[in-house]
Every structure is written in structure tokens, then in C-alpha cells.
Amino acid sequence: MPSFTVFKGQQNGVPMKSITLKPDQLAGDSVLMKVTASGVCGTDLHYKTHDMVLGHEGVGVVEAVGPDCRSLKKGDRVGWGYETDSCGHCMECLQGSETFCSERALYGESNFDQGSFASHAIWRESFLYKIPDDISDVDAAPLQCGGATSFTALHNIQPSDTVGIMGIGGLGHLAIQFATKMGCRVVVFSGSESKRSEVMRLGAHQFIATKGAAELKVSWPVNRLLVTTSAQPNWELILPIMAPRSVIYPLSVSAGNFEIPYMPLILQGIAVQGSLVAPRNLHRQMLDFAALHKIKPIVEQFPMTEEGIKQAMDKLERGEMYYRAVLVAA
């Protein structure tokens, strides 16, 4: 029975090296791959004290395929993200919204014996994505969740729309690039002036520092707002700059309640839209779009070792990461 190295969470929050055992033969459309790089996502911090293999922004090289595989072959570069399976038969799956399938397999809820913090992984071909030649393994890893999340929130945006992005971290800096290349006007909101020059270099059209502000003034009303900060913004400042019938996407993960003033939503027809990660069709589109427009995450690299993972997760938890951490296999 083959085995491979994995890195798990444990009660004290320190990543621990372990081993996962798998059957001798690959069944169905299962694919064995050697992991070459893994992003470190904020969601990973939520599970660092759990007895499970960590990581869900994986990139690797196919080493073997099961008998029912149709599109992948040995040597292909592939990635995977937050969802790794669904029933394939319900209305959500049939309509291309398998991220909301009642039998979905999501990170942190299933497959606790493997993840992207590992030497190898085995996943269904149906939930693996070929990496375009123009994207390196290191750049591809954060796109598997961070890129997919921000791209999905921009789905069906119009080039004439104004996109507001709250926060310039692992999600925000990718959202700026995607929205700009989609032809939108991009307004970025940050607590301080420290990232102004970098935000403008990434393609934003307007930068607004919110700390201490009594009122926000934008050049264009915001049609779609992506909230990528861990804390909720001051809605009394934000809602007056939203366009009628605009949409707010809260993208960061939080266990608390989402609270927002009631009447502005009613009077302006503003919607708050929950969003998970990309379904498979959008995930593929995201990778192709990123390759075509040369969209790349800004990353810091760490070795795929106990110490390297601990350093990356500690730095991310302190809020000091610039902007995405990537673990690289030795």
C-alpha cells in the first residue's frame, strides 16, 4: 500500500509531518500527482488546530491516472482548489453550480487524510485543472482559491461598471488585476496610505484611505463591492457611495454575524451576495484569463517542511504576509 508525506494540523496549532496511506491501484477517474507548490490561504489558519491534512491551493505534476480518466496523462501540470468532488446529478451540479451541491466535498469538511501541504495527492480528474504553460507552479498555486474566489465575484461584470475593492491583501491584490483587465473602473479602499503606489501600479484608477474619514468621495458610484478584509467595514461610510442596484460581495471567512444598515439596502436596491469559490467552468476561465492577461499573485516562498509551513502560517496570522505565501516542494 503506497504512502506519501502530509502535513497536518494538531491541537497546539503547530503543523506536524505525517503519512497518508492509499490503495495500490487508482480507481475510476482518480489521479495521482506529485505536489510541487501549495498556496497558504487564510482559511488554512482556521484548521491548524484540527487533526487533518492542511492546504487546498495545490499544484502538481500527474504521475498516474485511473482507468476512467479521459483528459489527463502522466506529466501534465494540474491544480485543485477548495472543492474536490460533488454528486454530479443534482440540479446545482447540472447547472454548473456544483459548489452548492448538497454532497459536495469541501476543504475542512471531507478528505481529512490529504491536502496540498503534502508530497502527493489523489483527486478526481473531474476536479483538476490544467495549468496554462504561461503560468508557473508558484504563481498558479494562489490562483486555485484566492484567484478563483475573486474572479467568481466579478463574474458577469460589465466593462462600464465600477468595482470597489475593500482591502489589499491576498484576495484584494488579485481582484484589482482581474477587474482592471475586465475593463472596469477600479476604486480601492484601504485603511491607510501605505499601499497607494502599489495599488495604482496594479491598475487601480482611484485609491481612498478610509482611516479617520467622516465621508468618502469617489469619482464614480460603485456597482460591485468586494470586501476582502477580515473585519467588516463602516457601512455608514460605504453605503452612500454605492450605486443603485449595486451588489456587495463579502469574501473573507468569518464566524461572526454580518451586520449592515437596513434602510439603505431597501431604498437603493442594494444586494448582499454570498459567494464561495469558483465552480469548475469559472475556474478554468480564470486560469485562461490570468494567463492571457499575465495576472500574477505577489508571493513569498517557503519550503514545504514543518518549519517552513509554521513560518508561513505564523506570518500570515500576524498580518505580515506580502501578499500570498507559497510552499515549494524540495
Count of helices?
A: 9
Number of DSSP-assigned strands: 17
Order of helices and strands: EEEHEEEHEEEHEHEHEEHEHEHEHE
Biggest β-sheet: count, sense, barrel? 7 strands, mixed
- Rg (CA only): 20 Å
- Per the principal axes of the C-alpha atoms, what is the gross shape? globular
- Percent helix: 10-25%
Which stretches are poorly predicted, pLDDT < 50 over at least 5 residues? none
Mean pLDDT: 96
* Share of β-strand residues: 25-35%
- Structural category is alpha/beta
Distance between the termini: 24 Å
List keywords for this structure.
7-stranded mixed beta sheet; 6-stranded parallel beta sheet; alpha/beta; 330 residues; globular; 17 strands
Descriptive report:
The protein is an alpha/beta fold and 330 residues long. 24% of the residues lie in helices and 27% in strands. It has 9 helices and 17 strands. It has helices spanning 42-46, 91-94, 137-153, 172-181, 196-201, 235-238, 262-268, 280-293, 306-317, and strands at 3-8, 16-21, 30-40, 57-65, 77-80, 83-85, 105-106, 120-124, 129-130, 162-166, 185-190, 206-209, 222-227, 242-250, 271-272, 299-303, 324-328. The strands form 4 sheets. Strands 3, 4, 5, 8, 9, 16 and 17 form a 7-stranded mixed sheet that branches. The protein has a 6-stranded parallel sheet with strand order 12-11-10-13-14-15. It has a two-stranded antiparallel ribbon with strand order 1-2. Helix 4 links the parallel strand 10 (162-166) and strand 11 (185-190). The longest helix has 17 residues, at 137-153. The protein is globular. The chain starts with a strand and ends with a strand. The relative contact order is 0.16.
